[in-house]
Amino acid sequence: MCGIVAYIGKRDAYPILINGLKRLEYRGYDSAGVALLNENDELNVYKTKGKVSDLEKFTIAKDISGHIGIAHTRWATHGEPNDINAHPHLSRSGNIALIHNGIIENYLTIKKELENRGYVFKSSTDTEVLVNLIEDVMLTQKVDLFEATRIALNHVNGAYAIALIEKGHPDTLIAARKGSPMVIGIGKDEYFIASDATPIVGMTSQVVYIENEEVVKVKLGEEMKLKTIDDVEITPYIQELQLNLESIEKGGFEHFMLKEIYEQPTTVRDTMRGRLHADLGTITLGGIFDYEQKILNARNIIIVACGTSWHAGLVGSYLIELYAGIRVKVEYASEFRYRNPVIFPDDVVIAISQSGETADTLAAIEIAKEKGATVLGICNVIGSSISRVTDAGVYTHAGPEIGVASTKAFTAQVAVLTMIAIHLAELNGHLPKSKIMELIHELDLIPEKIQTTLERSAIVKDIAAEMKECHNAIYLGRLQNFPVALEGALKLKEISYIHAEGYPAAEMKHGPIALIDKDMPVIFIATNKSTYEKVVSNVQEVKARHGKIISVVTEGDVLVKEMSDYVIEIPDTECTYAPLLATIPLQLLAYYIAVLRGCNVDQPRNLAKSVTVE
Ligand code: G6P
């Protein structure tokens, strides 16, 4: 969603801000803007609908000088994406410029009050209301911008990450956050502010993560000043940034998504490193070590997540129930948070999130905590909000995921959940030791088998060429391959804009079968051994109705292969591990179809990488 970059220092701010915005493009946006304070104390604001490259074109031959500035990519919430609604927004006097991520829920009430006092608004945004509220506090209470921001934020409900600059103060940046993330980079005689660490990588490795309801003032030549909005001074906690430049660049691939798909042998290995000990036949998960007994004694495990992370959760639920015999429910965080769920203090809630910033998942965690449950996190982004508000957790260590459509984060999440499931079985003895050894040994081979799957996926390009004009597709699978079907369909929808449905294969008879004709591609994930004959029957049902059959099968398969128009083979593995392999060709299929259709793979329309508003 929206992205923030701000700079103050000795260098020219504009190139730093533009490069920072480019690194934030992956979050998804529809307009971009920048405000710069030049040597003559002029506050120049440039903003436009479209991409950061459009903003660059717009600023050609304009004054882009200045050593201090704020820049923004906007993902429209209040008001359509256009030049006027784009950020930064100026206060009535034109002295203050503000950029904002999040939503001010009570902005209409504040707007009315300000209008009654003569304020006139140019845009439909909540952000323009906020900058004027801050200026109003400054004027009426005769305080500086830092103090006015702190006071004004006591009057707003909702989520925000904001950055402000002010005429007459070329050495000072103000920022604050609640809900939406924000990080400050500390360089030598310079500061960077951003909505995630990617714009800061390579600039400095010293960072401070701003906590909820904190306001910060960075002034050249002075120590950073941090306060809560209740006026309590905080000592900034400076940390070492864990990202490097290589991990946020494309490394020779045409798109981030393709790079991330091909990284999976490495990322899944990284997820398991130091945790899966194939030689000893054991698993250690240091992050949740202190909570093992709680999990084993849990009345229910409840997994909360959104999007692809929810699909990983569904795979996890099959594994934990099967291996450890503990009941698991999987909930959409957005539903869970509003339906007053029954949660007991002896329940364990596991929140799964790549970004660690998804607003609905964060809200679900709050509810679980209020009801006394233990909350664990499975996050990819180190230091993210979810990783900080949960009692404990396991990082996926997949490295930064830039493509909006999640790929390597999914396999990493499934790898973590698989380790949790086996480890719980190790602890509660639900499976014999010999089976646990077998599972651990096989899991250790998965990165190699992902590599083999990638090498065997050349056929996927042919299938993509065949499917590129279709309007619909159905993905079918049973048991742990049902979430694979959901994930395959989601990938296709997200990046190629083809309507696709994932279904449990047997449910096909209760509806989707009505859609099948010669133009309908049906993708079967047919790797299960226990339900193989059942899937064969489903394939026959589609064939009888002339549907086009594309199947993902285990190497050596005969029956499904014979009936299919196209076959993708994956290496043989433990049935329950199939999601770690079968998902890969489906990611590639969506990718190649999107490329053939000329879609913007890494930044699909209307989607955001990190959904920080509900
Ligand atoms: C967005 C992203 C998806 C992601 C979902 C949940 O919709 O585009 O790729 O699966 O959010 O995000 P999270 O960061 O919580 O896993």
Structure description:
This protein is 36% helix and 23% strand. The protein is built from 19 helices and 27 strands. Helix 12 links the parallel strand 21 (374-379) and strand 22. The longest helix is centred in the C-terminal third of the chain and has 23 residues, at 433-455. The structure holds 6-O-phosphono-alpha-D-glucopyranose.
List the helices and strands and how they pair.
Blueprint: E1 3-8, H1 13-24, E2 31-37, E3 43-49, H2 52-58, E4 68-74, E5 89-90, E6 96-104, H3 107-116, H4 126-141, H5 145-153, E7 158-166, E8 172-178, E9 183-187, E10 190-194, E11 206-209, E12 214-219, E13 225-228, E14 233-234, E15 239-240, H6 256-262, H7 264-272, E16 276-277, E17 282-283, H8 292-296, E18 301-305, H9 307-324, E19 328-332, H10 333-336, E20 348-353, H11 359-370, E21 374-379, H12 385-389, E22 392-395, H13 408-428, H14 433-455, H15 459-467, E23 472-477, H16 481-496, E24 499-504, E25 521-526, H17 532-544, E26 548-554, H18 559-563, E27 566-570, H19 578-596
Parallel strand pairs: 18-19, 18-20, 20-21, 21-22, 23-24, 23-25, 25-26, 26-27
Antiparallel strand pairs: 1-4, 1-10, 2-3, 2-4, 5-6, 6-7, 7-8, 8-12, 9-10, 9-11, 11-15, 12-13, 13-14, 16-17
Helix pairs in contact: 3-4, 4-5, 7-13, 7-14, 9-13, 9-16, 13-14, 14-19, 15-19, 16-19
The structure holds 6-O-phosphono-alpha-D-glucopyranose (G6P).
6-O-phosphono-alpha-D-glucopyranose (G6P) is lined by residues 306-309, 353-355, 358, 361, 404-406, 607, 609-611.
